[in-house]
Each structure stands twice: as C-alpha cells, then as structure tokens.
Design a protein that fits this description.
heterotrimer, A mainly alpha, B mainly alpha, C alpha/beta, A: about 0% strand, B: mainly alpha, MetI-like fold, about 0% strand
C-alpha cells in the first residue's frame, strides 16, 4: 500500500496512459463518440425522423443530393438519414446503459457495503438474495417486467435494473471485508467517528477504483443488453430509436440495404470494445490487488 | 462436508430459487399486470370481463390464487397457454430440445475453436496470428450476436448462397445460428486460454533456465490444461444457462429458428402469462442444475476444491 | 485492591474481564471452540501513572488494550472508567468517552487513510467531535505537530513521505488531539528502528507529565516497560499471572513466568555471563480451549499435580503485589 501510494503521487495521469496505447486510443474514441452524440444537432444535417420517401434505402454516398447534404451512411426504409439516427439513437443506447449501470451501482454498492460492514444476519440476508438472484433466470424476469409494464425506454431501464446491482453488491462487500478489519477503521472507532463517517468518508473512497472498473465494464454490458431487448422490440419504441432498434427495424431490408444494419452494429461493437479496454486498464492501474503483467 | 451432502444442500437451494422466482413472476403478472385487460378487447362488456375473471380464478384472494398456482406448478401443470390454446408443458417441450441442441452445438464449437487458437496465440505471442486472434476474440465479445448473425447471413446465405437464411430441418439450418451464438463464448475462452498458457510458458522458461527435468515440464502442461478445463467448464456452463434463459432469442429471431428463445420472445409479445410462468419455472430449474453440474465437474478437475 | 487505592486515584478498573473469540462456528451453528484471548483479568490503572502490560506475543495483551477502549465487544466482566462501566454507556456517554480515551497503534501508518493528508489525519478527531474548524483547526493541528516534534508545514504532506518514527509521531498527535485522560499504547515502538525508539519513548514520557496522561503501555519488552511504568501486569495466555508496582515486582518476582521473562533480557555486560539465569523452555500453549489448571504448568519447573488440575487464583501475597501461583516462589536470579 505504501508503494502504491508513493507511485500514485509521482506518476501523473498522462504518464499512466502512455504505457497503454490501446487504452489511450479507446478513451479518445469514446470521447469523440460522446461529443458527437452530445452535439448531434450540430454535426448532422437531418433530423433523425425526417423521412424522404423518394430517397428510400439510398446507399451511403458522399455526393450531395438535390434536397440536401450527402447521406454518408445511406438512408433507411423511410428515407431517414442513417448517420443522423445513429447519433440520436446512440444517445438513447448510452443513456439506458448509463442509467442502468449507475442506479445498479448505487443500490448494489450500498447493499454490499452494509453487508460487508455489519456482517451477521444483515450480511446473510443480503448475500442470500444475491445468491438466489445470480442463479435465477434474470433475463426472463426482466422480460416479465417488460411484459407487464409494456415496452419503452424507462420500462426497459427498470427491467434491466433488476439485474444490474448484484455484481456491484458482491464487489463492494468483498472490498469492505478487507478494509473493515483494517487498522484504519479501528482508528476511526477509537476517535469516536460515526459509522456513517467511517463508511462514506474512509471505506467508500478506498474501494472506489475497483468499483469504477466494474462500472465501466457493466456499462458496456448493459449497452449490449439494451440493444438485445430493443432489437426484439421490447425496448425503445419508435419514433425514438436506439442502436438495437435500428438493427431490428433494418433487418427486413438486409439484402437491399445492409448499411442500415451495418453501422449501428459497428457502433455497438466499437463503444463496447473501447469501454472494455478502458475498464481493464483502470483495473490494472489503480487496483492494488490486481496482478500486474 | 461430503459431496453427497453438498449436492443435497444445493438441490434444496434450487428448490428455494425456483419457488422464489415463481412467486415473483406470479406477483408481477397478477399485481402489476391485469390478465383480463390483456386478453379481452377494449370494447368488452362488464359481463364478459367478470366471466373471464371467474374463469381464470382471479376473483379469489391473492394468497389463495398463489396457493393454487404453486400446487399446480409442483404437478407441472401450468394450465393452457392463452396464445396457443394448448397445455403450456406441451408448448415448451415442442421447442426446448431444438434450442438445447443448438446451444450445445455452439458451446462445443466455441471450445473446439477457442482452445487450440488460444494455445497457438500464446506460443506465437506478439505475432500476426496472436494479434489477429485478439481482434477476433474481442470482436466476438463486443459485437452483438444477433448482428453477427445478420452479417453471417448476408455473406453466406445472401451473397454466397451456401446456407439457408432461415428455418429448420437440416444440419445446414443449424450452422449459422450456432456460429453466431458461439462467437461470444469463443472470444472469452480464447482470451482465458491464451492468458493461462502464457503464464505457464513463463514458468516453463524459468524451469528450463534452471535446467530441470522433463517430468516437470509435463507436469506444468498438465497443470495448464487443468486450469484451462476448469475455466472452460465454468464459462461454458454459465453461458449455456444464460442462452437457454432467453439470450438466444435474438439470434433465433434472426434465423427464424423455431426454438425456445423465439418462444420466449413470442410469449412476451403475446402476453401469455401462464406460458411465461411455465418457462420461468423450467429455466430456473435448468439453470440451477447446470450450475450444480458445473460445480461438480469443477471439483473433479481441481483436487483442491472439496465440498 | 484496596491497599494501593489510597496512594493514587483509580482511572480505569478491569474486573473479571473475559474475551473469547469463537472459531469454527457458522451463522446458525454454535462455535466449535473458543480462543481464550483474555481470561478473567482484574487490574487497575491509576490516574497520571502508567500500567505496563507485558507478555509474549499472542498472550492477549493487545486484546486487553482494545477491550479497555471498548473497541471490541467483551464476553463477560466489567471495565470501569472514572467509576462507570464503559460497556453500559449510553450513546452520549460513549461519545464523551471517545474524547477521553485514545489508542496509539503499533504501526500508525496502517491506521491512516492513505488518501488523507497529515493535517486531516491529526485534525479528524477535532472535526468528529466539533471541537473546532477552519483556521482554528489549522492552528490546533500545527500546534499538535509542534508538540510531537514535527514541523507544522507537514500538515499539507501525505504521511507516506515521512520516516517511520515521524509517522508514529503523527499517530501520537492524532491520539492527543482531544486532550484525552487515558491512552492505550499498543506496542508503539516495536515496529520502529532501534535508533528512533528512544525518541518516541521520550516523547510519550514528556507528554505524560505535561498533559497529565494515564497510559496503558503494552509491550513484550520488559525493560521498556520498567523504564516507563509505575505498575506492571504480566499476562500469560490470556491470564494475569502477576501484578503490582514496578519496583516491587522487580525486587520480588513471585511468579516463575515473570522470573523467566526478566531473565530473557540480554545481559549488557559480557563479564556478567556467569550469572545464574532461568531459561524458558517449551512452547507457549494454544489459547484455544485451554485445559483447566495453570496455563504455565507445562513449562514450569515447580509444577505439581495440583497445577494441572486447578486454576491458581490471583492472590495478594505481598502488599499491593498480586500473584497467581500455588507455590511459595520467589525469583533469585540476579537481574540488572
């Protein structure tokens, strides 16, 4: 721990990135994707729902049409600009993934910290819940939620949340167990610091880096999960769109217009890949328990 | 603790999980959703509604309904599917074997491909082969399987015409769905195998540097193989359970494959409550049994683990 | 223990205190066995003085220190602080107790939050108890740093930049921040280089006289304890075997274990090698469900059949000098 702390001080964040070019590249790609989505209004020429029935299923081209700028990724079955829809749909995909991972993290970390810190029957109840949950068909439970609540973005988030807290709960618990028996916590008790203070002021910040890793990896996972359910038609509903829904709607035109399916799939792949690389990098760099290669 | 006692404990846990999940789904479908609203058109009269409520037994108190449901579930009687108008069990057993076989094919494929490729990449660490494999396995992990399925279909069915686009019946119909499903576990497994082999090769380097005997090298590879087997079993087992629990649905939809995944998808679309309950019940049992099997196999391969 | 109570006021009294750690058991199962870490210990700590708690590692002295501060739940017995049982405290009383009683760790650095600067480590007790904040807090922290012999500017540094002795001083500053009455020093110098031990010991002694502190000084080194303590309590596998004023104990070793401990101290002058000494043989018995009888019996030359059957009670054999031994022993080794 002492060496870890020492190296943390001397090596700057930029230095750390230089050792791992793939992670640096991934981070840049993620930032670019994020900015493009954030400023979608500025970087696209068409509204996502602006159809043109005369320009249906137009292939990707850099040549401007009579009616406006080029459809660089082609148009879909309603003549809507695929590039535009990709950015607006990406907003939805990322929002769903982020909200699910974030709320799941809040719930899971809180429960895991309670379980690890208090132990005893609280620990037993919480961890039994996690055990039961982990060995049950959670996708089916999520689908049940979708069925009774009806499809839609927010219901999809609720359905996916069912599944997103357990991993955080386990992680947080095991981290807390290590720290709970530490002299740091005993010292906190000795000066009369409250349980809340010890937990949120001392334990929480010390377990944050493995949890950040878990968060990034879970974010990637739930972007994929969102696309899966939206593809099946149980998630985001038109006129809203998301990457998964774009693939689901475009698959009927696979033979005539493969670009409708191609680009959203690649977007999912690239985003998830970059998140994975960045997540693994955070784990290797900041987690003192991780084995360094 | 003896193995027998451990298995009994796990079976008891399985029953707990199955009952818990069944109750959860029951409560969700009966408290949050209203079956009568779903089954009848909007313009249905009050009399029609009341008649159906009575027929479905929804006028009884909730606990009574739950008791009846659990009592029937134990006898594997989930009633008629609303959508197909035939016993739920029949519907499930029509589709389950096909998907079970498809996923088995996919699992076998991922093991057969990933283990040699992972070992090869470890041997030629840093080479073109290694890099290609890394790209290949990472794309398998990151790209959605249904999208991979669509791309495979585009190339091998539409452009090349080698394989059918959809349906079932011949072995040719199984190839593309199995490959699409296999991509993700294949990628994970190849990474694990590569990592494990590299560690063993590093250790081997140390041993040869110390000029030790051949026995030790053999021992090392047996050790590596053991580790690879244990992680493969865990991974493939978990993946199998997940695929059977509805993950294969999107790939089955892509290929019009009349399997269990597509049945789940159709169940949700048709809001078929009894069928969903039957599916949840079955998948919960199968998932738990697979997990148990994985643990037992794990112990068989890793003598350190004793239950 | 009425004899000595007249000479000084009792700050902390421990009565028949027991702490068993269950091992093996599960959530619903009863523990298979218990570690008898502290077993029926009775002793007093007098205001403004130092009680030295000595024994080999694993004898329960650290657990005893934690119990005296209510940092562990007890199994049975009582701990009175200023006349009140600390295990019966209300929330409010406990909060007050935390300002009056502190702990100094063997390795202070491990007790710090690595992410905190020295200033916030030392100032945390003041913040927790709302003593002061803002610039007043900074002033107080600077003053504390000066008290323990460090530069006030260090407040802005991280503790890992310090040397081991300085880290220990930061731990001491944190412990005295609230102007406590009582401090448990848990082997505060054992982890330090010999060169800085004297510095830390002198600091502790100076602080004791300037701030009227009462120490429970835990150590395995009986020489250090002699130098610092007014009273000594010798522990062996969870039991108190001898207790009394330091010089009284050094003059009359009434328990064979104390005698052996003192003889284990290296002789400083090589010419004195010939001096007759008791050498401790055998192993420390396991504290897991120990059999009845004297814990020291297996290693004791004087052990009789009675020693392995009955627990020797702690009796006042000389005024203010308590021993738990059936034999009428008095150590005769020459010790420096």
């Amino acid at each position: 721990m002492a060496n870890q702390a020492t190296s943390k001080k001397k090596v700057t964040l930029a230095d750390r990135f230089r050792y791992n070019k793939a992670a640096l590249f991934s981070l840049i790609v993620l930032i670019v994707i994020f900015l493009m989505m954030l400023f979608a209004e500025q970087v696209t020429a068409y509204r996502p729902t602006q159809g043109d029935l005369y320009a249906r299923l137009a292939p990707p081209s850099f040549a401007a049409t009579e009616k406006g700028p080029a459809h660089i990724m082609g148009t879909d079955q309603l003549g809507q600009d695929v590039y535009s829809r990709l950015l607006y749909g990406g907003r939805v995909s990322l929002t769903v993934g982020f909200v699910v991972a974030f709320v799941g993290a809040l719930i899971g970390i809180t429960l895991g910290m309670f379980a690890g810190y208090f132990g005893g029957w609280i620990d037993m109840v919480i961890m039994r819940m996690v055990d039961v949950w982990s060995s049950s068909p959670t996708l089916l439970v999520a689908l049940t939620f979708v069925m009774v609540l009806g499809p839609g973005k927010w219901n999809l988030i609720i359905a996916l949340l069912v599944n997103s807290w357990t991993l955080f709960c386990r992680m947080a618990r095991s981290q807390v167990l290590v720290i709970r028996s530490s002299a740091m916590v005993e010292s906190g008790h000795a000066i009369g610091a409250s349980t809340n203070r010890i937990m949120f002021r001392h334990i929480m910040p010390n377990i944050i880096s493995p949890l950040v890793t878990t968060f990034v990896l879970e974010l990637a996972h739930f972007i994929n999960a969102e696309s899966n359910l939206s593809f099946l038609g149980f998630g985001v509903q038109p006129p809203d769109t998301s990457w998964g829904l774009m693939i689901g709607e475009g698959r009927k035109y696979l033979t005539q217009a493969p670009w409708i399916v191609l680009f959203p799939g690649l977007s999912i792949g690239v985003t998830v890949l970059c998140l994975n690389l960045v997540g693994n990098w955070i784990r290797d760099e900041f987690d003192p328990l991780a084995v360094k290669q | 603790m003896g193995m027998g006692k451990y298995i009994l404990q796990r079976l008891a846990f399985t029953i707990l999980v199955v009952i818990g999940i069944s109750i959860l789904v029951f409560v969700l479908t009966h408290v949050v959703g209203n079956p009568v609203d779903i089954m009848l058109p909007l313009q249905a009269t009050m009399e029609q509604r009341e008649l159906l409520t009575q027929q479905l037994g929804l006028d009884k108190p909730m606990l009574e309904q739950l008791r009846i449901f659990l009592g029937e579930a134990v006898r594997l009687d989930f009633g008629l599917s609303w959508w197909q108008r035939r016993p739920c069990m029949e519907v499930i057993f029509d589709d389950l074997p096909l998907t079970a076989f498809l996923i088995f094919l996919a699992s076998a494929l991922s093991v057969v491909v990933a283990i040699p490729l992972g070992i090869l990449a470890a041997y030629r660490r840093g080479s073109i082969i290694d890099r290609l494999l890394t790209v290949f396995s990472l794309s398998g992990i990151c790209l959605p399987p249904f999208w991979i399925g669509l791309m495979l279909m585009l190339v091998f069915s539409v452009k090349l015409g080698w394989l059918p686009t959809s349906g079932t019946g011949t072995w040719k119909h199984l190839v593309l769905p199995a490959v699409a499903i296999a991509f993700r576990p294949m990628g994970h497994l190849a990474q694990i195998v590569r990592f494990e082999m590299i560690q063993q090769l590093n250790a081997l380097y140390v041993i040869t540097a110390r000029a030790k005997g051949v026995d030790e090298i053999v021992l090392l590879f047996r050790h590596a193989l053991k580790n690879i087997m244990t992680s493969s079993i865990t991974m493939i087992g978990n993946d199998y359970a997940k695929q059977l629990g509805g993950l294969s649905a999107s790939v089955e939809v892509v290929f019009g494959f009349p399997g269990f995944g597509r049945l789940i998808s159709d169940t949700i679309e048709n809001m078929d409550f009894p069928l969903l309950q039957a599916e949840v019940f079955f998948v919960a049992i199968i998932v738990c049994l697979i997990n148990l099997l994985v643990d037992i196999l794990y112990a068989a391969f890793d003598p350190r683990i004793r239950y | 223990m009425t004899a000595t109570e007249t000479t000084a006021k009792t700050l902390l009294s421990v009565r028949q205190l027991k702490k068993y750690f269950p091992i093996g058991g599960g959530m619903l199962k009863k523990a298979k066995s218990n570690v008898h870490a502290v077993d029926d210990v009775t002793l007093d700590v007098y205001a403004g003085q130092t009680l030295g708690l000595v024994g080999e590692s694993g004898c329960g002295k650290t657990t005893m220190g934690r119990l005296a501060l209510k940092l562990l739940p007890k199994t049975s017995g009582e701990v009175f602080f200023q006349g009140k049982d600390i295990y019966q405290y209300s929330g409010e009383q406990e909060k007050e107790f935390r300002t009056k009683a502190q702990l100094i760790f063997q390795d202070s650095f491990s007790s710090f939050d690595n992410r905190d600067k020295i200033g916030s480590i030392i100032g945390e007790p003041l913040v927790v108890h709302n003593v002061c904040r803002g610039s007043e807090l900074d002033d107080r922290v600077g003053e504390l740093l000066r008290t323990v012999g460090l530069k006030p500017e260090l407040a802005a540094e991280f503790p890992h930049t310090l040397a081991a002795g300085q880290k220990q001083c930061v731990g001491i500053a944190r412990a005295i921040a609230l102007k406590p009455d009582f401090i448990v020093c848990d082997e505060p110098i054992s982890a330090l280089d010999v060169s800085v031990r004297a510095m830390v010991l002198n600091l502790l002694k100076d602080l004791q006289s300037s701030q009227q502190l009462t120490y429970m000084f835990i150590s395995h080194d009986i020489r250090v304890v002699r130098w610092l303590s007014s009273h000594i309590a010798v522990m062996y596998v969870g039991k108190l075997v001898e207790y009394g004023e330091t010089e009284e104990i050094f003059a009359h070793r009434l328990h064979p274990y104390t005698e052996a401990l003192l003889c284990a101290v290296p002789i400083e002058n090589p010419r004195d090698r010939h001096i007759k000494r008791e050498i401790l043989l055998g192993e420390v018995p396991s504290p897991v469900d120990p059999p009845p009888g004297c814990r020291f019996a297996a290693r004791c030359k004087l052990a009789t059949e009675r020693c392995s059957k009955e627990d020797p009670p702690l009796l006042e054999r000389r005024p203010g000098h308590w021993v738990s031994c059936f034999e009428d022993f008095e150590g005769e080794s020459e010790i420096s």
